[in-house]
Amino acid sequence: MNVETSTPSGPPKPVPAESARPFGPAAAMLLAAGLGTFILGLLTTLAEASTGIKDGLQWNDRVGPLSGKTIIAAAVFFGGWGLLTGALRRSDPPWRTVVYATGALVALGLLMTFPTFFQAFAPD
Amino acid sequence: MELTSRETWTLIHGLILGSLFLLAFAGGLAGLYSFRTELVTSEGIRERLFRLRVGVTGMAVLAWATVITGTWVVYPWYRESLAGKSLEACAGLQAPNDKCSPKDFLLSNTSGDTSDWHEFGMEWKEHIAWIAPMLATAAALLVLYYGRNLVTDRRLRMIVLVLFVGAFGTAAIAGLFGALITKAAPVQ
Q: What share of chain A in percent tops pLDDT 70?
């Protein structure tokens, strides 16, 4: 497939384009980013609500519970990317659904990492 | 004129890695926005694609390096509990010292109403910062994988742009609070 481009100094020249690739790998990447963000937010809020969970996430004493939260979120991001890429790499999932799902996951993740929100769950 | 080891690491984290990421954003945004058939020639696409691939990959690496050094190197110095629960050791101080960590100092309110810098500012910064590398990596991998397809596929280009702007926005919030908190209670 060639793409016509116009230039100010001459007639359009053909641009050799790579063959169109399926949307699956993009969907996998988007959903993995959404899941990683969502899990980070969920763990942040859960750690605030429960001392047990907070202690359980303290994988390193110097860093505190942030160590567990961030390692799990990064693992979900990279692991999710690998698994979803394996599952979707040749498919063409509906992009609107994928974009909306990713948007919702990222928005929830952002909300749950906002201090005014997660501190509302702190025990009195 | 000298820098302590802690100040050096704080500089590497914030002023070198973090600032480079934020500065590179403008170039990446311009490159992505104009990466379309009506604005570039065939030769321009080839040259721009290489630059874009190197740029977005570099930004993703910078974002990970910034949050890893921030969380695992600088943050433990910020949060160590030196002054005890009463925070008495911070009384009368104008800056944190070896008996009163930056977190202790902010929570003690000894130099004014500073506790919100920790309870809101640092609490937000330490979490939201980790969203930036995930979004930046997603944008980078899409550019690496789809490459030239981004020129003709406006939808895909918009998705990459949104991820890219999201990575910048979250990093900018973290960077802004990092700078302000460091001003109020530097890691020394």
A: 85
User: Comparing C-alpha atoms, which of B90, B137, B120 is closest to residue B181?
Assistant: B120
Q: Is B107 part of a structural domain of the chain?
A: yes
| ipTM of the complex in this document | 0.92
What token pair was written down for B149?
């397809």
A7–B163 CB contact, under 8 Å: no
Mutate to test the interface with B, among A6, A13, A63 (most CBs of B within 10 A): A63
Produce one character per residue of B151-168: b if its CB has 16 or more CB atoms within 10 Å, e if not. Answer: bbbeebbebbbbbbebbb
Question: Which pTM value belongs to this model?
Answer: 0.90
Chain A residues in contact with B80 by the CB 8 A cut-off are: 62
Residues of B in contact with A48 (CB under 8 A): none
| Domain extent at residue B168 | 11-84+96-184
Asked if B124 is an interface residue toward chain A (Cβ–Cβ < 8 A), one would say: yes
Q: Which tens digits make up the pLDDT trace of B17-58?
A: 999 998 889 888 888 888 887 787 888 888 888 989 999 999
Total of domains in chain B: 1
Look up residue B121 and give its amino acid: G
Domain count, chain A: 1
Interior/surface letters B34-50, b for 16+ CB within 10 angstroms, e for the rest: ebbbeebbbebbeebbe
B37 interfaces chain A, CB cutoff of 8 Å: yes
